[in-house]
Amino acid sequence: MTPTVATHRPVPASAHRPVPRAVRISIALTASVLVGVLTSFGQAVPALAAAANAAGPWFVVAVALCALAGVRTGRAGLALAAVLGVASLELMHLGYWAATNLRGHPDVLSITNFWVLMGLPAGVLAGAVAVGLRTRDDRWRAAALGVAAAILVGEGVRAVLQVADDATRPGWVAQIVVGVAVLVVATVTARTPVARVVALGTGIVGAVGVLGAYLLIGG
After folding, report:
1. Rounded CA separation 36/50 (Å)
2. Who contacts 48 (Cβ-Cβ below 8 Å, separation ≥6)?
3. Which of 175, 182, 174, 173 shows the shortest CA–CA distance to 202?
4. What are 137-175's pLDDT values in tens digits?
5. Is the pLDDT of residue 17 over 80?
6. What are the distances in angstroms from CA 114 to CA 43, 88, 122?
7. Full-model pTM
8. Secondary structure (3-state) at 15
Protein backbone atom coordinates (compact mmCIF):
# COMPACT_ATOMS: atom_id res chain seq x y z
CA MET A 1 0.00 0.00 0.00
CA THR A 2 1.47 3.34 -1.01
CA PRO A 3 1.78 5.80 1.90
CA THR A 4 -0.04 9.07 1.55
CA VAL A 5 2.24 12.07 1.36
CA ALA A 6 0.85 15.21 2.91
CA THR A 7 0.96 18.19 0.61
CA HIS A 8 0.82 21.81 1.53
CA ARG A 9 -0.74 24.40 -0.67
CA PRO A 10 1.60 27.27 -1.45
CA VAL A 11 0.70 30.48 0.33
CA PRO A 12 -0.15 33.20 -2.18
CA ALA A 13 2.45 35.95 -2.33
CA SER A 14 -0.28 38.51 -1.65
CA ALA A 15 -0.82 37.01 1.81
CA HIS A 16 2.63 38.22 2.86
CA ARG A 17 2.38 41.57 1.17
CA PRO A 18 2.27 44.44 3.68
CA VAL A 19 -0.50 47.01 3.52
CA PRO A 20 0.74 49.92 1.40
CA ARG A 21 1.72 52.92 3.45
CA ALA A 22 -0.61 55.18 1.46
CA VAL A 23 -3.53 52.96 2.42
CA ARG A 24 -2.58 53.05 6.11
CA ILE A 25 -2.32 56.83 6.02
CA SER A 26 -5.72 57.07 4.33
CA ILE A 27 -7.24 54.83 7.00
CA ALA A 28 -5.68 56.92 9.77
CA LEU A 29 -6.99 60.19 8.33
CA THR A 30 -10.46 58.77 7.75
CA ALA A 31 -10.50 57.42 11.29
CA SER A 32 -9.60 60.90 12.55
CA VAL A 33 -12.78 62.34 11.05
CA LEU A 34 -14.78 59.47 12.55
CA VAL A 35 -13.30 60.13 16.00
CA GLY A 36 -14.45 63.75 15.75
CA VAL A 37 -17.96 62.62 14.79
CA LEU A 38 -18.11 60.13 17.66
CA THR A 39 -16.88 62.80 20.08
CA SER A 40 -19.84 65.01 19.26
CA PHE A 41 -22.31 62.20 19.89
CA GLY A 42 -20.37 61.10 22.98
CA GLN A 43 -20.93 64.46 24.63
CA ALA A 44 -24.62 63.62 24.84
CA VAL A 45 -23.92 60.42 26.80
CA PRO A 46 -23.39 61.13 30.53
CA ALA A 47 -20.99 58.21 30.98
CA LEU A 48 -18.82 59.48 28.12
CA ALA A 49 -19.13 63.19 28.78
CA ALA A 50 -15.75 63.55 30.48
CA ALA A 51 -13.81 61.70 27.79
CA ALA A 52 -15.73 63.49 25.03
CA ASN A 53 -14.84 66.88 26.49
CA ALA A 54 -11.18 66.08 27.11
CA ALA A 55 -8.18 66.85 24.93
CA GLY A 56 -6.06 64.02 26.33
CA PRO A 57 -7.95 61.18 24.64
CA TRP A 58 -7.73 62.96 21.28
CA PHE A 59 -3.97 63.26 21.76
CA VAL A 60 -3.64 59.57 22.54
CA VAL A 61 -5.79 58.67 19.53
CA ALA A 62 -3.64 60.90 17.30
CA VAL A 63 -0.54 59.06 18.54
CA ALA A 64 -2.19 55.69 17.86
CA LEU A 65 -3.26 56.74 14.36
CA CYS A 66 0.24 57.99 13.55
CA ALA A 67 1.54 54.61 14.65
CA LEU A 68 -1.10 52.89 12.52
CA ALA A 69 0.04 54.89 9.52
CA GLY A 70 3.52 53.45 9.99
CA VAL A 71 5.62 56.41 11.06
CA ARG A 72 9.35 55.91 10.77
CA THR A 73 12.32 57.01 12.80
CA GLY A 74 14.90 59.54 11.63
CA ARG A 75 14.55 63.22 10.75
CA ALA A 76 12.48 62.63 7.63
CA GLY A 77 10.20 60.24 9.48
CA LEU A 78 9.80 62.70 12.34
CA ALA A 79 8.82 65.51 9.97
CA LEU A 80 6.23 63.35 8.23
CA ALA A 81 4.88 62.14 11.57
CA ALA A 82 4.49 65.74 12.74
CA VAL A 83 2.47 66.61 9.64
CA LEU A 84 0.34 63.51 10.08
CA GLY A 85 -0.25 64.31 13.75
CA VAL A 86 -1.44 67.83 12.93
CA ALA A 87 -3.65 66.55 10.11
CA SER A 88 -5.17 63.94 12.41
CA LEU A 89 -6.13 66.41 15.13
CA GLU A 90 -7.48 68.99 12.70
CA LEU A 91 -9.58 66.35 10.94
CA MET A 92 -10.98 65.42 14.35
CA HIS A 93 -12.04 69.06 14.69
CA LEU A 94 -13.62 68.89 11.23
CA GLY A 95 -15.55 65.72 12.07
CA TYR A 96 -16.70 67.18 15.38
CA TRP A 97 -17.84 70.42 13.72
CA ALA A 98 -19.79 68.60 11.02
CA ALA A 99 -21.51 66.18 13.41
CA THR A 100 -22.35 68.90 15.93
CA ASN A 101 -24.01 71.08 13.31
CA LEU A 102 -25.90 68.13 11.86
CA ARG A 103 -27.18 67.38 15.36
CA GLY A 104 -28.67 70.89 15.46
CA HIS A 105 -26.10 72.52 17.72
CA PRO A 106 -24.48 75.47 15.90
CA ASP A 107 -20.70 75.24 16.01
CA VAL A 108 -18.17 77.43 14.24
CA LEU A 109 -14.92 76.02 12.85
CA SER A 110 -12.39 78.83 12.60
CA ILE A 111 -8.63 78.93 12.15
CA THR A 112 -8.55 81.33 15.10
CA ASN A 113 -10.33 78.89 17.40
CA PHE A 114 -8.15 78.14 20.43
CA TRP A 115 -8.35 74.37 20.11
CA VAL A 116 -7.77 74.49 16.36
CA LEU A 117 -4.61 76.51 17.00
CA MET A 118 -3.54 74.15 19.76
CA GLY A 119 -3.89 71.30 17.29
CA LEU A 120 -0.70 72.49 15.61
CA PRO A 121 1.79 72.04 18.48
CA ALA A 122 -0.20 69.13 19.90
CA GLY A 123 -0.18 67.37 16.54
CA VAL A 124 3.56 67.84 16.17
CA LEU A 125 4.02 66.42 19.65
CA ALA A 126 1.71 63.47 18.90
CA GLY A 127 3.78 62.63 15.84
CA ALA A 128 6.98 62.86 17.85
CA VAL A 129 5.56 60.55 20.53
CA ALA A 130 4.56 58.01 17.88
CA VAL A 131 8.11 58.07 16.47
CA GLY A 132 9.56 57.80 19.97
CA LEU A 133 7.55 54.65 20.60
CA ARG A 134 9.05 53.04 17.49
CA THR A 135 12.68 53.90 18.17
CA ARG A 136 15.11 51.39 19.62
CA ASP A 137 16.51 53.98 22.00
CA ASP A 138 15.06 53.13 25.40
CA ARG A 139 15.33 56.73 26.58
CA TRP A 140 13.23 58.12 23.73
CA ARG A 141 10.60 55.44 24.22
CA ALA A 142 10.44 56.24 27.93
CA ALA A 143 10.12 59.95 27.17
CA ALA A 144 7.33 59.30 24.66
CA LEU A 145 5.30 57.32 27.18
CA GLY A 146 6.04 59.94 29.82
CA VAL A 147 4.63 62.69 27.61
CA ALA A 148 1.43 60.74 26.98
CA ALA A 149 1.04 60.11 30.72
CA ALA A 150 1.71 63.76 31.52
CA ILE A 151 -1.03 65.02 29.24
CA LEU A 152 -3.61 62.61 30.63
CA VAL A 153 -2.73 63.23 34.28
CA GLY A 154 -2.24 66.99 34.00
CA GLU A 155 -5.53 67.59 32.24
CA GLY A 156 -7.36 65.18 34.52
CA VAL A 157 -6.12 66.86 37.70
CA ARG A 158 -7.05 70.28 36.36
CA ALA A 159 -10.57 69.06 35.56
CA VAL A 160 -11.04 67.52 39.00
CA LEU A 161 -9.92 70.76 40.62
CA GLN A 162 -11.92 73.18 38.49
CA VAL A 163 -14.67 71.80 36.27
CA ALA A 164 -15.72 68.33 37.39
CA ASP A 165 -19.09 67.70 39.00
CA ASP A 166 -20.59 64.56 40.52
CA ALA A 167 -21.53 63.23 37.07
CA THR A 168 -18.20 63.78 35.31
CA ARG A 169 -15.71 63.36 38.17
CA PRO A 170 -15.46 59.54 37.76
CA GLY A 171 -14.53 59.99 34.11
CA TRP A 172 -11.79 62.49 34.90
CA VAL A 173 -10.46 60.29 37.68
CA ALA A 174 -10.39 57.39 35.23
CA GLN A 175 -8.28 59.51 32.87
CA ILE A 176 -5.83 60.22 35.69
CA VAL A 177 -5.65 56.51 36.53
CA VAL A 178 -4.94 55.64 32.89
CA GLY A 179 -2.21 58.29 32.78
CA VAL A 180 -0.60 56.94 35.94
CA ALA A 181 -0.80 53.42 34.52
CA VAL A 182 1.00 54.57 31.36
CA LEU A 183 3.73 56.13 33.50
CA VAL A 184 4.08 52.92 35.51
CA VAL A 185 4.40 50.92 32.31
CA ALA A 186 7.01 53.35 31.01
CA THR A 187 9.03 52.97 34.20
CA VAL A 188 8.70 49.22 34.59
CA THR A 189 9.51 48.41 30.97
CA ALA A 190 12.52 50.73 30.82
CA ARG A 191 15.65 48.65 30.47
CA THR A 192 18.12 51.10 32.00
CA PRO A 193 18.18 53.34 35.09
CA VAL A 194 18.58 56.40 32.85
CA ALA A 195 15.45 55.50 30.92
CA ARG A 196 13.51 55.07 34.16
CA VAL A 197 14.57 58.52 35.31
CA VAL A 198 13.57 59.94 31.92
CA ALA A 199 10.14 58.31 32.13
CA LEU A 200 9.47 59.54 35.66
CA GLY A 201 10.89 62.99 35.01
CA THR A 202 8.96 63.49 31.79
CA GLY A 203 5.75 62.18 33.30
CA ILE A 204 5.86 64.11 36.58
CA VAL A 205 7.34 67.38 35.34
CA GLY A 206 5.18 67.22 32.23
CA ALA A 207 2.00 66.68 34.24
CA VAL A 208 2.81 69.69 36.41
CA GLY A 209 3.49 71.71 33.27
CA VAL A 210 0.22 70.69 31.63
CA LEU A 211 -1.70 71.49 34.83
CA GLY A 212 0.03 74.86 35.11
CA ALA A 213 -0.74 75.70 31.48
CA TYR A 214 -4.43 74.89 31.96
CA LEU A 215 -4.60 76.98 35.12
CA LEU A 216 -2.82 79.85 33.38
CA ILE A 217 -5.08 79.99 30.32
CA GLY A 218 -8.18 79.08 32.31
CA GLY A 219 -9.45 76.88 29.46
Report:
1. 15
2. 42, 171
3. 182
4. 999 999 999 999 999 999 999 999 998 888 889 999 999
5. no
6. 19, 17, 12
7. 0.87
8. helix
